[in-house]
Amino acid sequence: MNARIEDYALIGDEQTTALVGRDGSIDWLCLPRFDSGACFAKLLGNEDHGYWRIAPKGQVTSTRRAYRPGTLVLDTEWETAEGAVRVTDLMPQRDRAPDVVRIVAGVSGHVTVRSTLRLRFDYGSIVPWMRRSDGQRVAVAGPDSVWLRTEPHVDMWGEDFGTHSEFTVTKGQQVAFVLTWHPSHEPRPPLIDPHETLRASVRGWRHWSSRCRYDGPYRDLVVRSLITLKALTYAPTGGIVAAATTSLPEEPGGVRNWDYRYCWLRDSTFTLGALLAAGYHREAEAWRDWLLRAVAGDPADLQIMYGLAGERRLPEWELPWLPGFAESTPVRVGNGAVDQLQLDVYGEVMDSLWLARTAGLPNKPHMWAIQRSLMDFLKSAWRQPDEGLWEVRGGRRQFVHSKVMVWVAADRAVRTLEEHPDLQGDLEGWRAMRDEVHREVCEQGYDHRRNTFTQYYGSRELDAALLLIPRVGFLPPDDPRVIGTVDAIRTGLDHGGFTRRYDIDAVGVDGMPGGEGAFLACSFWLAQALHATGRREEARELFERLVSLTNDVGLLAEEYEPDLGCQVGNFPQAFSHIALVNTALTLFGEDQAG
């Protein structure tokens, strides 16, 4: 039986992450990067696919856990009949090698603790060779090598292709475990001091989180979302992955299981806006610079997503040996949507770079040249059908949101030239393009009878992405067409009081069987749209219901399934947390962010 998604917390070192369950088991860890093969894949399988559990040996009567305020350091405390024990989990900022540090501390009484480690490289498919060396355990298989040690020394033994230890702690006693990965052809990296590492990690995270400028309602959840976004950042390049996981299902038992350990361009403007408004200009600049490197090249080859360093080839394949979370198969690695045409990404890139310039981020000499190249391509290509924001696999259509974002691209190009007349560009041509796109969307993407914009030209379906029309400036919030669209989406895409992305039952659009939950980012967008159209109490009420869905440590997945009362989809999801931050800023005023 898998735990619920809500049962997991996140630790990480800004190059990879691990998911820790309430039962003290690390069930997901990819080393050395977010997109590497998992050495603990129990999340998508069972104990034979790798995990590391440290917990009381006896029966637990209660469990409490929390992050230390302002950090990504997790404390889990268990009560037993014999006493209480705490495990502190963290992944320190790495020097050369990634480390997982787990410190067991006696709180009261005397508690027997058991550690069970089952390393399985390549997503649970490879059992490594384990041996002793200098009082430590070392596991090797192909390119991977992992060392396990304790301070003070604790006896370990091998059993059932796992490494086990058992010991008793009393109040004040501590035992630290350190697991370190390195390439198997290299020597073991230098040992770290787990206790000093803990102190340094707490100091470093608290210094970082103290920079948050937002001081309004729900500040703790806003800070937690920003910490999560930081944890999903690949520090060497500044790229931000969409989630820490692959193949957590959008429907338990279903086939909508995708790999989100890559960087999506659709997130760019939302991410930049959240980072800039909250006071994290260095992180915003790093993301902007990653964006410029990723999109460099032929504008016709612009992709919707890239790898951590801007890699372009992300082929999709399946792992048939993994039974999937909640028996949801197939388990996929890579993402075939990388080959789709999504015209909206041109608007998102142009909007991001316009926002970066407006916010005063240091300019890059080649930035405007890249933007001009994107506009030159878009001017001749914008009339094409595409797969749209939601990466549907039912064929290309004239998606309205895509055309709105084409308008955004032209609008931001025009505004940049108007504000910076020293730059060169086709001002009149882009103005004409902007006007033509706007006119076409209002004529062909709007249903006059129902007073709502639709998912694609000539359709009756709705699309929650159209909630962004006032946000991007396509129409003002008080336009009757905007209000009608908000009302139509609020009713027509409602799912248990939250919002679906689109009608998944629409014939042929989605191209996939099964269903999905309410999309959390879209639900936050609805709160923003209600606020913009003057329904501020309703917006706040929806926001409060949304933040109540966070788990006990403040994390959100991609979706929520009201019928089952649980989170679904990859976890934690950057898009959900970015939407939480931006909605808090929208609802509670920019005067609370500075």
The counted number of beta strands is: 28
| Separation, N- and C-terminal Cα atoms | 46 Å
The CATH C-level name of the largest domain is Mainly Alpha
Question: Which value, in Å, is the CA radius of gyration?
Answer: 25 Å
Which ranges are low-confidence, i.e. pLDDT below 50, for 5 or more consecutive residues?
A: none
- Structurally, the number of domains stands at 2
- Helix share bin: 25-40%
Number of helices: 14
**In what range is the share of β-strand residues?**
15-25%
The biggest beta sheet reads:
15 strands, antiparallel
* CATH architecture tag of the largest domain: Alpha/alpha barrel
What's the overall geometry?
globular
Query: Whole-number average pLDDT?
Result: 95
* Helix and strand composition category: alpha+beta
CATH topology grouping of the largest domain: Glycosyltransferase
